[in-house]
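Worked problem 6 (solution included).
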Amino acid sequence: MEHRLSQSHRPYRLIGYTALWIGVFWLAMPVSVLPQNMATREQIARMLALEKVNIANGPVSGEVVNRLPHTVRDVQLFIRYTWLWDNETKPGSADPGTSTYYTLAAEIPPGGRLPFTFRPSPPLPNVSGGRFETSVAIAGFTEVIPQSR
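Solution. The predicted structure is:
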């Protein structure tokens, strides 16, 4: 008994083969290409530190200290400008609060420090009825680990 696929089933066969090859390719990829570990804030604080942070009506400056035994790069800072209303029970209609990610341009060697300065663009609005509370935290980074042979 001979079994032939009808014309309507052939696209499904192609999709099945494509999915199979994608799966084989994914499993054959080197581990170094796959996503790396996620760290908690506490773990990040043991690896990188923010020091000499100065917040002055918009601009944020300070230093990132590398506590790791390897170079780090692509350090991302999360800078949040939270608007606190003077009268929280009757806030205004527009919340001028904002946040941004800022990536440092240089690598930081083991034990090294990298100063940074961020200025919001456009500048924070000059609004009455409250004040900004600014915070900065390390959101992410890449640790450069040399390959051993």
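Discussion: Residues 81 and 134 are 5 Å apart (CA to CA).
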